[in-house]
UniProtKB/TrEMBL annotation:
<keyword id="KW-0676">Redox-active center</keyword>
<keyword id="KW-0143">Chaperone</keyword>
<keyword id="KW-1015">Disulfide bond</keyword>
<dbReference type="Pfam" id="PF01430">
    <property type="entry name" value="HSP33"/>
</dbReference>
<keyword id="KW-0963">Cytoplasm</keyword>
<dbReference type="InterPro" id="IPR016153">
    <property type="entry name" value="Heat_shock_Hsp33_N"/>
</dbReference>
<keyword id="KW-0862">Zinc</keyword>
<dbReference type="InterPro" id="IPR016154">
    <property type="entry name" value="Heat_shock_Hsp33_C"/>
</dbReference>
<protein>
    <submittedName>
        <fullName>Hsp33 family molecular chaperone</fullName>
    </submittedName>
</protein>
<dbReference type="InterPro" id="IPR000397">
    <property type="entry name" value="Heat_shock_Hsp33"/>
</dbReference>
<dbReference type="InterPro" id="IPR023212">
    <property type="entry name" value="Hsp33_helix_hairpin_bin_dom_sf"/>
</dbReference>
């Protein structure tokens, strides 16, 4: 395990890369605290929606940190269940944001099924998609897979098995701290394809390594995943020290939304003015960012300016 670097690095709201020494197993641990609480508190979601969105965000961070990209990674679920849409964004510099769309009536009816199999109960039939947007002139990488499994983590594992042929193990925990603040923690491990590991490892029996790692992964408790007093690297060492675990410096994560008044103005200007006028309530057009709930208001004088008037 390294070293002094972890001492001065963040203890919370971070993603921690690691690898099991001399094996083809690599992993990430994400820990979300105050920043997650901030993101969820911008919305007034019912408990199951907030909980599920927290899980989605934790998974989005894990998946994004497995990729090399400059730009925006988006995880999206779409389904015919009570939560019709969830979107979680992670930028390559660690800015997070997320929102959900749901039907309150359908959510109430979902009842106890949510505890037994949250993914089918809340999302219904649909798909989960990953997109990497690296700017206007680059390809958008997209992976998409049908929702299947009891949890979102199951769906993600299913995706890697089916689409990427990469063995993947994921464990996720979401809860609240004593003060009521939302917290999430998750660990994801992957077994790299045979041509990507250190040469010396190829001859050895990695099946055993993998099985042992999965046993350790399922032994992690939600309390361990969420506890801010228990450092990510300390927990990883506790789990994998027998096989040798190497941790790299964690990346700090924070809430960050890319909306701005300027962007909203550009969007409004692209719409027919009459349509926008029709949106007026009490003489003001209000545009609310879905991600962060910031409200941008435009009165007549400002609309005049947006549409190139005096
Ligand atoms: Zn925003």
């Amino acid at each position: 395990m390294t070293d002094q670097a972890t001492v001065r690095t963040p203890m919370d709201d971070l993603v921690q890369p690691f690898q099991i020494e001399a094996s083809r197993l690599r992993g990430r641990m994400v820990r979300l605290g105050p920043e997650l609480d901030d993101i969820l508190n911008r919305h007034a979601y019912p408990e199951p929606v907030a909980r599920f969105l927290a899980e989605t965000l934790a998974l989005a961070v894990l998946l994004s940190s497995m990729l090399k990209y400059e730009g925006v990674f988006t995880l999206q679920t779409k389904g015919d269940g009570p939560i019709s849409l969830m979107v979680a964004d992670v930028t390559s510099v660690g800015d997070l944001r997320a929102y959900a769309q749901f039907d309150e009536e359908a959510l109430r009816k979902a009842g106890d099924d949510v505890d037994i199999a949250p993914a089918p109960a809340l999302l219904g039939k649909g798909y989960i998609a990953f997109t990497v947007d690296q700017g206007a002139d680059t390809d958008r990488y997209q992976g998409i897979v049908e929702l299947s499994g009891k949890t979102l983590a199951d769906c993600v594992q299913h995706y890697f098995r089916q689409s990427e042929q990469i063995d993947t193990g994921v464990t996720v925990g979401v809860g609240r701290d004593e003060a009521g603040g939302w917290r999430a923690g998750a660990i994801m491990m992957q077994r790299l394809p045979p041509d990507q590991g250190p040469a010396a490892v190829l001859a050895s029996d990695t099946e055993d390594d993998w099985r042992r790692a999965m046993v350790m992964l399922t032994s992690v408790t939600t309390e361990e995943l969420l506890n801010p007093e228990l450092g990510a690297s300390t927990l990883l060492y506790r789990l994998f020290h027998e096989d040798g675990v190497r941790v790299w410096p964690p990346q700090a994560l924070r809430f960050g939304c890319r909306c701005s008044r300027e962007r909203v103005e550009t969007m409004l200007a692209s719409l027919p003015r009459e349509e926008v006028q029709d949106l007026k309530v009490d003489g003001v057009v209000e545009v609310v960012c879905q991600f962060c709930s910031t409200a941008y208001r435009f009165d007549d004088a400002e609309l005049e300016r947006v549409y190139g008037g005096v």
